Amino acid sequence: MPSEDFAAGGRRQKKQQHHHNQLQIREVWADNVDREFKLIRAAIEHFPYVSMDTEFPGVIHRPAKHPAAMTPAERYALIKANVDALHLIQVGLTFAASPSAPPALAFQVNLREFDPRLHRHAPDSVALLAASGVDLAAHRARGVSARAFAALLMSSGLVCNPEVAWVTFHSAYDFAYLVKLLMGRKLPRSLPEFLKYVRVYFGPEVYDIKHMMRFCGLFGGLERVAGALQVQRAAGRCHQAASDSVLTWDTFRQMKSLYFAKEGSLQLCAGVLFGLELQEDAKLLAPTSCALR
């Protein structure tokens, strides 16, 4: 049964569905992470659709050729080089009841490991995060440890749960950081093995809006696509993970309404990460349980 906090939150969210701009992002720090994950565990049963975004300190390894000319394996090798070398800063999670429902809850998990004085990063990316309101000093002082976050994710019902559907935007880096965190070590060497872990942890219903756009005649980044669909940012600021996860969700449900209204059409996009389109190989290799940890 949901906790009393969740029941109260549920009542508030019913009201927020009528006044979307009142959606409040719940900030998650070390001192409240256990309480917030209790709420997440209770929420999953009622809100099994989760949109996810991450913030990280840019990229330090650049491609030797234009990304459009790279193979999926080459793209993955570049992602692996960056993710293995860098630290995750934020994870945003937004929960909804169905593909057409408004967001019900949004969480921003603030992690502690990254220190720009010690760790490699792209200075322009870190400056952009700071200008967008990400307080890295607060992250170092009060943030959740990556190890604690991984343990809570594994026990939350969010991962290794085929009933949960995930929605993302251009998500290869997002999933790479979470797979690295959940594994507790560097990413797998090969793309098929990485996709195997994505499927084990996140299940068959993973929707990458960047891939879905190919069927809709839409182009550009999240802000541009949201604007083209007349979707407004409902909470928070851009370049913060929770706010971007809310915008990702609202963009997804507008796309579904306009382009994937026919029953079953959305399933054609499931399981594909934009730029890493070897999903059939991953399905063939995927185990049926979460025994990879």
From TrEMBL:
Subunit description: Component of the CCR4-NOT complex, at least composed of CRR4 and CAF1 proteins.
EC code: 3.1.13.4
Gene Ontology cellular component list: CCR4-NOT complex; cytoplasm; nucleus
Molecular function via GO: metal ion binding; poly(A)-specific ribonuclease activity; RNA binding
Organism: Panicum miliaceum
Location of region: Disordered: 1-22
Keywords noted in UniProt: Cytoplasm, Exonuclease, Hydrolase, Metal-binding, Nuclease, Nucleus, RNA-binding, Transcription, Transcription regulation
Protein name: poly(A)-specific ribonuclease
Cofactor needs: a divalent metal cation
Role noted for this protein: Ubiquitous transcription factor required for a diverse set of processes. It is a component of the CCR4 complex involved in the control of gene expression.
Signal peptide region: none
Bias (Basic residues) ranges: 11-21
Family affiliation: Belongs to the CAF1 family.
Subcellular localization: Cytoplasm; Nucleus
Protein origin, superkingdom: Eukaryota
Catalytic activity as recorded in UniProt: Exonucleolytic cleavage of poly(A) to 5'-AMP
